[in-house]
Write a structure and sequence with these properties.
Shape: elongated
Distance between the termini: 47 Å
Number of domains: 2
């Protein structure tokens, strides 16, 4: 997996921006907490993406997510064709016609 295929989602980006703004509150409440909070923000901002890519966790998550979406899509498709059998027959006839047209003549 190269770096360009990995992107943070809107929820992660929004959370990080909120944590950056929360830095002002942390300074007011407890300035000594900055010794832990700033390295955490630096790791999240600069180190998490390379860590996820290097360990392969990002690729595993993408594969899991794709498999889950495919399974859900197949269940939805199966449910649709169960409720609409005429559309399934029409689709099968259309596919058969297209295959017949694609055969080499001879």
């Amino acid at each position: 997996m190269n770096n360009s295929s990995f992107e943070y989602g809107p929820l992660a980006v929004g959370s990080y921006i909120a944590l950056l703004w929360l830095t002002l509150v942390v300074v007011v409440i407890n300035p000594f907490l900055l010794m832990v909070y700033v390295p955490l923000l630096l790791f999240l901002g600069l180190g998490l993406k390379p860590f996820l890519i290097k360990t392969g966790l990002a690729e595993k998550y993408q594969a899991f997510s794709a498999m889950r979406k495919e399974r859900l899509n197949s269940k939805m498709r199966q449910g649709f064709y169960t409720r609409h059998p005429k559309k399934l027959e029409k689709r099968d006839k259309h596919i058969a016609n297209m295959r017949k047209k694609m055969r080499p003549k001879g």
